[in-house]
Amino acid sequence: MSTTTTGKATARPPREHDDVRWLTADEQRAWRAYRDGTARLLDVLAHELEEDSGLSLGEYEVLVRLSEAPQRTLRMSELAGELAHSRSRLTHTVRRMESAGLVERAPCLEDARGVNCTMTETGWRRLVDAAPSHVESVRRHLVDVLTPAQMQALGDAMAAVGAALQAGCAQAEAAAEASGR
């Protein structure tokens, strides 16, 4: 942003960036509201979950995804894709969870290069114990704050963003593979 002689910020950025599609005032307000609301929501959800169950949001999400899978088992690559985490970040989280007895890793029988992650009975019990208070926290801080129409619009909007980003990642991976990287 540039400033006027009175020191006030102008809506027009410096000329060297004329090719940038700058956000309108309404878009900027919406972006900041989304960014700030999301950060605050995730902070409070993480704090309450950790306080109530000793699980991080990342650990909880791993357990949820495994609980929904056949035999409570997913390949690590599949789990990373479902959680939108990098493989290295997921590996770190799963290693910590494995040390706590919540999950086990084993080579994939169908593909020796793959690794499966399976929820243990201890992991299942932790998830069952943690879920009621976490769901109540999500309800109290998000679902009950919004109207049903707002909640639907939020879900639709984030599904569109997620799909666009996932498609972009798939295109980048295909391009990298085609170029031999």
From TrEMBL:
| Domain HTH marR-type residues, every copy | 20-163
**Coiled coil (residue ranges):** none
Example GO molecular function term?
DNA-binding transcription factor activity
Highest taxon listed in the record's lineage? Bacteria
Q: Which Pfam families match?
A: MarR
What InterPro entries does this protein's entry cite?
HTH_MarR-typ, MarR/SlyA-like, WH-like_DNA-bd_sf, WH_DNA-bd_sf
Biological-process GO terms, alphabetical = response to stress
Which PANTHER family is this protein grouped with?
Answer: MARR FAMILY REGULATORY PROTEIN, TRANSCRIPTIONAL REGULATOR, MARR FAMILY
- In its UniProt entry, what is this protein called? HTH marR-type domain-containing protein
Look up and give the organism this protein is from.
Cellulomonas pakistanensis
Q: What is the lineage of its organism?
A: Bacteria, Bacillati, Actinomycetota, Actinomycetes, Micrococcales
